[in-house]
Amino acid sequence: TPGYADADFNYKIVGWRDEVSSLPSPYDDNGHGSHCSGISAGEGGLNLDHLGRAVATTADFQQFDGGSEPEGTDYYSITRFNVTTPGIIDVETEFNDFTLGLDDIDLWVYLYYGEFYFGSPTMVDSYIPSSDTWTHNLTHTVTAGDLGMYSFVIGVNYVDNTADGYVSSPDIQFRSKIHWPFDPPQFGSGDAWKGVAPDTHLVGVKVLNQQGLGTASGIIDGINWVITNKNVYNITTMSLSLGGGSGHLGMITAVNNAVEAGIV
After folding, report:
1. Which residue, 82, 133, 140, 205, has fewest beta-carbon neighbours within 10 Å?
2. Pairing mode, strands 171-180 and 148-159
3. Coiled-coil ranges per the record (predicted)?
């Protein structure tokens, strides 16, 4: 059963520990944990809308209190997706700029046919606003002649209004939901959307905040919590999808202790 209940193995998520905010229920700030969990333990099935199109959500944010970004525009390919049958692509987008002071940030959205970073993709729709808050739907009708890979791209435009060449304390939020025609061949593989171990359960341990920042002590505490609760939740495998500097002896010790406890 999807959802969460502590130590109840009728549910997919059976344990939770929040070393960041001590909240009692699982949450995912930007989707990375859900992405990794789906790869490892997803039960299969594809999100479909009422028209039978595949649906995927993306989100991005930047909150850099006390920091700055140089004036100019940066472009990012947020996601690529494969359109396998004719139909309509819809990309729902939403943006908010909470940056304080005179500086400003604009965000622009583009839909390309082809891969943005390779070859010569063709822009099929775009929206280039200058307001701080907006919603907009990109759309494109796909024919049999333009099936294949599409790219959803954003441009983040940093506008310096204080003549120092920088945008101070940038603070923006962006989300999107993509609907596209997708009916992939299975090649006899069964459910192409299942994870590596779809019948396993999940225990979530949050050690980084919304900006992807945390402390070594928080990570170590999270690892030690897993070791302590290994038998409570029948934990056999631990996946750490995070990065940082090397050579931290406390972290090395914690990971080695997890291995000694029988956790892969």
Report:
1. 133
2. unpaired
3. none
Nearest 5 degrees, angle CA 233-CA 237-CA 241?
Answer: 115
Among 3.30.43.10, 3.40.50.300, 3.50.50.60, 3.40.50.200, what is the CATH number of 13-44+194-260?
3.40.50.200
CATH assignment, 54-180: 2.60.120.380
Q: How far from each other are the two terminal CA atoms of the chain, in whole angstroms?
A: 25
User: CB-based contacts of 225: which residues, under 8 Å, 6+ apart?
Assistant: 17, 19, 205
Q: 3-class SS at 229?
A: coil
Question: How many of the other CB atoms lie within 10 Å of CB of 142?
Answer: 20
- The pLDDT of residue 156 is 96
Cβ neighbour number for residue 151 with a 10 Å cutoff: 20
The pLDDT score that the predictor gives to residue 148 is 95
Backbone angles phi, psi at 102, to 5 degrees: -85, -25
Give the Cα separation of 48 and 76 in Å (integer): 26
Q: What whole-number distance in Å separates Cα of residue 226 and Cα of residue 232?
A: 10
Strand (E) or helix (H) holding 221: helix 216-228
Each residue's pLDDT tens digit, 84-94? 999 999 999 99
In three-state secondary structure terms, 68 is strand
pLDDT in tens, 109-167: 999 999 998 889 999 999 999 999 999 999 999 999 999 999 999 999 999 999 999 99
pLDDT tens-digit series, residues 162-196: 999 999 999 999 999 999 999 876 666 667 678 89
- Phi first, then psi, for residue 216 (nearest 5°) are -60, -40
Could you tell me the residue ranges of all domains in the chain?
13-44+194-260, 54-180
